[in-house]
Automatic annotation (TrEMBL):
Residues 500-524 are annotated as: Disordered. Coiled coil: none annotated. Residues 52-468 form the Major facilitator superfamily (MFS) profile domain. One of its GO terms (molecular function) is carboxylic acid transmembrane transporter activity. Keywords: Membrane, Transmembrane, Transmembrane helix, Transport. The keyword Iron-sulfur does not apply. It is a multi-pass membrane protein. This is Major facilitator superfamily (MFS) profile domain-containing protein. GO terms for cellular component: plasma membrane. It is found in: Membrane. Gene3D superfamilies: MFS general substrate transporter like domains. The keyword Transmembrane applies. The chain crosses the membrane at residues 54-77, 89-113, 120-141, 147-168, 189-218, 224-243, 314-338, 345-362, 368-386, 407-429, 444-463.
Amino acid sequence: MTSIRHAVSGKIQTSLTDPLPETFTLTNSGVTILILHKPAGTGARSAMSSKYGAVFASGMALFSDGYAIVGTCIMLIKRQYGPDVLNKSMASALGAVAFIGTIIGQLTFGWISDKMGRKFGMLSATAIIIAFSVLCALPYGLSAQHLLIALIVFRFFLGVGIGAEYPAGSVAASENSEGEGINKKKQHLLFALATNNMIDLGFVVASLMPLILYVIFGDSKIEYVWRLSFGFGALPPLILLFFRRKMKEPERFQKDSMQKAPIPYLLIFKRYWMPLCGISITWFIYDFISYPFALYTSTIIDGLVADQSLTQNLGWSTFIMCFYLPGATIGAFTVDYLGPRKQMIIGLLLQALFGFLMAFHYELLKGHVAGFAIIYGLFLTFGEFGTGDNIGLLASKTGPSAVRGQFYAVCAAVGKVGAFVGTFVFPYIQSAVGGENSTLGQTVPFHIGSALAIISAIVLFFLTKELPADCMAVEDANFKKYLEENGYDVRQMGAQDSELEESLLGGDQEERKRMSHLEVSMNS
C-alpha cells in the first residue's frame, strides 16, 4: 500500500488524488522517499518573474552611466571656488576623465565577461561604482586644488566601473531577453527598457538631484549640493547588488561560451568586421552628439538667458532632460515591430531635422527659452527613439555568445571615445566661433550634430543588418557551423557540468540547502 506522510505535520495521506503538500515522504512496499514538491503553476510563475527580473537586474546599473552629474557639479564647484581655481583645463579634465576610465573598463571587462562569466563581471562593476561614488563625495580637509585632483582620480575609477557594466550587464540583459518563456514580441522591448531607459532616467535624475538639493541648502551651503549629488550615485547600484548576488549565468552564455576554449579571433574578425565597424562608427557619432549636450545643457541654457538664477538654470536643464525618457520609452515599445536597424535610421533622420531647425532659427528662439527647450528636447527625444534604444541592441545581439562581451565592448568603447572627444572639444568649438555665449557658439554644435546624424544613418544602412526575434540563437548556430567549416572543434564550447550546475542554482545557498535535504532511504 502507498502512503504519504506530511514531512512537517506528520499527517498520513492515503489518496494520491488529494492535493499534495510541498514536502512529504512517499512510502510504498517498504521504500521511503522524501520529496520536495511545488504546487502546479507556482514554479512557472516564479520562473517567469525570475526571467523578466534577470533582464532588469542585468541592465539597470547603466543608470550610473546616465547619472552624468559632473557637468552640473563643475558649475557648482566653480561657483564655490571661483573660475581661477576651476579653470577651463581643469574643468575639461574633470568632465572627461571618467570617459577614459569607462573605455578601459569596457575593454578589460569585455574579456572578463566572456572568460570569467557575466555574473562575476556585473558584481565587480557594481562594487567599483559604489565605492568610488562614495569617495567622490567624501574628500574633506584638502585645498581646492588637491580636492579637484582627488575628484579627477576618483572619477577615473568610477568610469572603470561604469565601463565594466556595458560588456557584463548589458550583454547579460540581452541574453536573458531571449530566455525560454520570454514573449518573442517583447525581447527587444525588455532590453531597451532595462538599459537605455535606465541611462536616460540617470540623465533626468542627474539634473533633478542638484536642483532639489540646491533648493534645500541654498547658495550658502553649495558644497553640500555637489557632494550629496555625487554620493547619491552609490545608492541605485547598492540596491541592485542584492539582486545580482542571486542571479545565474544566462542560458545562452552557458551553451555557447568559450570559457575553456581558445578564441579564434582571426576567424571571428573575418565574419564580423563589417557590422563591428558599422555599429562602432554609429556609436561614436551618437555619443559625440548626446553626451556633450547632456553634460553642457546647463551651459547652453545659461548662454540662452544669461540673467536667470541658478535655480532657473537647473530647472530648465531638468525640463530638457525629461525629453530623453519619452523617446526612449516610445522607442522601446515600437522596436520589436519596426526592427532596431530601421528604427535607428528613422530616429537619426528626425534628430537631424530638429537639430537643423534649432540651429537655423536660433535668433527667433533666443528670447523664448520655453520654445527652445521644447525643440531641443525633441532633438534629444528622437536621438533616444532611434540610436539610444537600438545601438546597444545591435552591439549585443549581432555577435556570437562566445565573444559577445568583447564585441559589445569594442563597439561601446569606440562610442565612449566619441563621448570623450565631444566633451573635450565642445568648449573649444564654442570658443573658436566666438565663445559659448555667442550665437555661433550656441548653434555650431547643432549643425555638426545634425550633419553627423545623417552620416550615421547612411553608415547604418550599408554596414548592419536587421535583428528579428531569437536572433542570438540563430546566430550562435550559424557561428558554430562556420567554425566547423573552418576546422575549429566546437565540442570545446559551452560550460562544464559543474559550471552548468552553478548557473542553474545561481549560487543560491538556500536552494542548495533545499536540494541537500532530498534524501532517499531504503527501508526493508
